[in-house]
Amino acid sequence: MKPSCPSRIKLIFPLFLVVFFLTGCWDRTEINDLALITGAGIDQKDEKTIELSVLVFIPKGTAGGQSGLGGGGGAGGAASQTLVHSAEGSTIADAMSKLQQKLPRHIFWGHSEVFIIHQDVAKDGIRDKIDFIMRHPQLRERSYVFVSKEKAKDILKLTPPLERDLTEVLEELADFKMGIEVTVKDLAQMLSGPSRTAALPWIKRLPKEEKQTSAFIVGTAVFKNDKMLGHINDSVTRGVLWLRNEIELAVVTVTPKEAKEGQVSLNLLRAHTELIPKIENGQWKMTIKAVTEDDVVHNGTNLDVSNPETTKMLEQELK
């Protein structure tokens, strides 16, 4: 028995309805139409103007060809996969708009891992900059933030010998806990906290070797009410990492008094710092308790490090 006409309509109508829910590629965005930003820097041009610099990643083909913005002003010459572009503006939003006018591709911030702030900008105040980054839909809250003595634009142009670009170097250094690790989100929380204080890693350019160089963390920039007051050196920063329970990499070399000559080097395996507050005579005091596990990696003395008495002595020297 053949189905009636109304029954056929009931069977065919859902098929037509499904067509309206099928997705298409009308709103696709090709990678060749994007300028992938991996890092950004903010410099002070004058009292009312800032300069926003971005490190653009240029995708290259595997067969010797390349697909990118093409020539001119790359961070590392013809073989480089990055390009630095800059634009000036009264605010970051203004500079971003003018930067887009200079690029033939749509700027995509989703891969931005690093923000470098020049010390002049940091001294003038960074609250409005961080607030904008937090609110922008594409800028990443988990991007690392650094302060530099040199111009951020010049730092972005450095060509590290091992990594693809400078942003990868700084990202790895932050992950290795070579200094204080601070993201945009961390910084926003610091500035909105009760103390209104913050600390950011202080970076410096490495001495140039041939045509390649990089940047490394040399200390910490200290902020009060969103303005940079100064910076502390690497040695003091290591102490701050102990206080923050963030120390991970450490090799300590001691010269035991019981040894005739030589030194012993110990490598940090694990560490934990506990802050114990108390009130004594009406004043707050803080006791810092740090417990570590270390491994002897070098013994240049005549001491037997397997002897329990020697181990206790080395623990005292290490402390």
Description of the structure:
By secondary structure, this protein is α/β, with parallel strands linked by helices. The chain is 27% helix and 33% strand. Strand 1 (34-44) and strand 2 (50-57) form a beta hairpin. Helix 4 packs across helix 7 (184-191). The longest helix is centred in the first third of the chain and has 15 residues, at 5-19. The N and C termini lie far apart (94 Å). Residues 62-74 have low confidence and may be disordered.
Number of strands: 12
Along the chain, the helix and strand elements come as: HEEEHEEHHEHHHEEEHEEEH
* Main β sheet profile: 9 strands, mixed
Taken from the alpha-carbon principal axes, the silhouette is extended
Number of helices: 9
* Unreliable segments of 5+ consecutive residues: 62-74
Find the structural class using helix and strand composition. Answer: alpha/beta
Mean pLDDT: 85
Beta-strand portion reads 25-35%
Radius of gyration: 28 Å
Query: Helicity range of the residues?
Result: 25-40%
Write the layout of secondary structure elements.
Blueprint: H1 5-19, E1 34-44, E2 50-57, E3 82-89, H2 92-102, E4 106-108, E5 114-118, H3 119-124, H4 127-135, E6 144-148, H5 152-156, H6 166-175, H7 184-191, E7 197-205, E8 215-224, E9 227-233, H8 234-243, E10 251-254, E11 264-280, E12 283-299, H9 308-318
Parallel strand pairs: 1-4, 1-5, 5-6, 6-7
Antiparallel strand pairs: 1-2, 2-3, 7-8, 8-9, 10-11, 11-12
Helix pairs in contact: 4-7
